[in-house]
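To: structure desk
From: M.T.
Subject: fold request, one chain
Message: Could you run this one when you get a chance? Sequence is below, nothing fancy, just the single chain.
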Amino acid sequence: MDVVWAGGEMTVRTVCARLGQFVAYTTVMTTLDRLFRKGLLNRRRTGRAFAYEPIVTEDELDRAFASGAVSAFLRQDGQDPLPLLSSLVEVVSDLDPELLNVLERLVREKRKQREKSPPT
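Reply: Done. C-alpha cells follow.
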C-alpha cells in the first residue's frame, strides 16, 4: 500500500520496479489483486495489464484497523468493559499525560456530537 499511496495509479510492473528485485512479479500481482478484492484498491485495464490506484488513504486504513481492534477489545463475551477501559486510561496516562487530555477532549466532542444527532 505504501508504494501505491506514494505513486498513485500503478501497474504491477511499476510496483515491482519500485520494490526492486526483492519481490517476485507474481507475488506483487497476487497482492495487488487481493488488495483490490478487499476494496482497498481500484483497478482498470490498460492493454493486457491492470493499473491499480488506492481507494482509501493511509489515515482511513489506520482508523479502520484501530476501530476493529478497539471493537474486539471491548467485545469480550459477557465481560464488564470497565476494567479494560480503566487499564486503557492507566496506560495512556503512563505513556504520555498529554494523551490523557486528548482522550478527554475527544470524549467531550463525541458527547456533543451525540447530543446534536437524533437517536437512530
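Reply (cont.): The chain has two domains: 2-54, 79-120. Let me know if you need anything else for the meeting.
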